[in-house]
């Protein structure tokens, strides 16, 4: 890595990008945050500020730490501002063509030594990397939502990823205070490959009337020692995100367990997306993305 306090670049300031920016500043990194949309950047600045302020109120951060953290974030609507980053994590929407176009632009905007990570949940890291003239520097770093709270980062080695890029990504992950798990570039990596069919099974159990939302959550929490029941987790992830991930994995794996059950469509049609809309399987007093 090129400097003593490496700089993290984040492209896309939505749910994941703003969460990863929080992770970066709280780990003492300078963070360069870019989004193609000015309103999305404004919303991210507000969301990040609210999270940091919440940390002060919960006595997890001093006022001085919070001020330092705020100062370490630089937001820009110009992608060129990220040329000083040592690692750039892309968190734009789950669309292969869009991610490939972004990688081509990053090739022009950044030095070839910059490590580039994709936060894709279901796309091929290899296909994303292939858009680069230097595909060996492209790796998967799959943060979980909400990124400030969840420890796991799947570090995904595509077929073209170099050993150095993979080991740099592992080091970055540890230095951000996260727990890296290496995995191969397969649909859903490790986590979503096992989680998505399980969540869909729980939704089908609800549709059949095997139990209520609360009963199924309780059974999973107490019987499997999961910290959250499946419906609490789905509300945190977002029903829309769950449907996209399910459909993408179903398209690649042709296994019915990945197909989202009809209840998911109905909830999305009703605007019941989970925590972010204030209602999902449960109702929430305030809509918020990081459980803040
Ligand atoms: N939301 C989750 O639970 C979750 C969890 C893990 C991984 N992921 C993955 O993270 C990625 C982002 O998901 P999200 O939920 O944060 O999306 P999001 O829709 O909340 O945010 C995407 C942001 O990217 C911006 N954007 C779009 N195209 C751009 C471009 N070309 N250049 C710059 N900015 C651009 C948009 O304005 C938006 O602010 C996806 O690949 C998704 O699969 C999501």
Helix count from the secondary structure assignment: 11
Largest sheet descriptor: 8 strands, mixed
Instruction: Round the mean pLDDT to the nearest integer and report it.
Output: 95
Proportion of residues in extended strands: 5-15%
- Spans of at least 5 consecutive residues whose pLDDT stays below 50 are none
The geometry reads as globular
SSE order, as H and E? Answer: EHEHHEEHEHEEHEHHHHH
Structural class: alpha/beta
Distance between the termini: 33 Å
Bound molecules: nicotinamide-adenine-dinucleotide
Portion of residues within helices:
40-55%
Over all CA atoms, what is the radius of gyration? 19 Å
Order of adjacent strands in the largest pleated sheet? 3-2-1-4-5-6-7-8
Commentary on this structure:
This protein has helices at 15-26, 38-57, 63-71, 96-109, 125-129, 163-175, 191-208, 213-224, 230-237, 239-253, 262-269, and strands at residues 7-11, 30-34, 73-76, 87-90, 115-118, 138-143, 152-157, 179-184. Strands 3-2-1-4-5-6-7-8 form an eight-stranded mixed β-sheet, sandwiched between helices. The protein has eleven helices and eight strands. The mean pLDDT is 95. The protein has 292 residues and is an alpha/beta fold. Helix 4 links the parallel strand 4 and strand 5 (115-118). Helix content is 46%, strand content 14%. It binds nicotinamide-adenine-dinucleotide. Nicotinamide-adenine-dinucleotide (NAD) binds next to helix 1 and helix 4.
């Amino acid at each position: 890595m090129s400097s003593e306090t490496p700089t993290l670049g984040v492209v896309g300031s939505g749910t994941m990008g703003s969460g990863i920016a929080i992770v970066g500043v709280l780990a003492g990194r300078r963070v360069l945050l870019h989004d193609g949309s000015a309103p999305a950047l404004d919303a991210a600045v507000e969301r990040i500020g609210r999270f940091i302020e919440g940390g002060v109120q919960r006595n997890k951060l001093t006022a001085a730490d919070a001020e330092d953290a705020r100062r370490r974030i630089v937001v820009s609507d110009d992608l060129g501002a990220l040329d000083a980053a040592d690692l750039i994590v892309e968190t734009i929407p789950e669309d292969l063509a869009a991610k490939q176009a972004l990688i081509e632009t990053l090739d022009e905007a950044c030095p070839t030594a910059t490590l580039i990570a994709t936060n894709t949940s279901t796309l091929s890291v290899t296909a994303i990397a292939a858009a680069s003239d230097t595909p060996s520097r492209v790796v998967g770093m799959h943060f979980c939502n909400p990124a400030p709270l969840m420890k796991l980062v799947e570090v995904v080695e595509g077929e073209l990823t170099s050993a150095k890029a993979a080991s740099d990504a592992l080091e970055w992950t540890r230095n951000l205070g996260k727990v890296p798990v290496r995995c191969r570039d397969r649909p859903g990596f490790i986590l979503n490959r096992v989680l998505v069919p399980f969540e869909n099974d729980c939704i089908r159990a609800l549709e059949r009337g095997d139990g209520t939302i609360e009963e199924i959550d309780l059974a999973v929490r107490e019987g499997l020692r999961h910290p959250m029941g499946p419906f609490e987790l789905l509300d945190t992830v977002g029903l829309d995100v769950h449907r996209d991930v399910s459909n993408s994995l179903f398209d690649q794996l042709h296994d019915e367990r990945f197909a989202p059950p009809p209840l998911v469509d109905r909830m999305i049609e009703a605007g019941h997306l989970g925590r972010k809309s204030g209602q999902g399987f449960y109702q929430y007093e305030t809509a918020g993305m990081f459980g803040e």
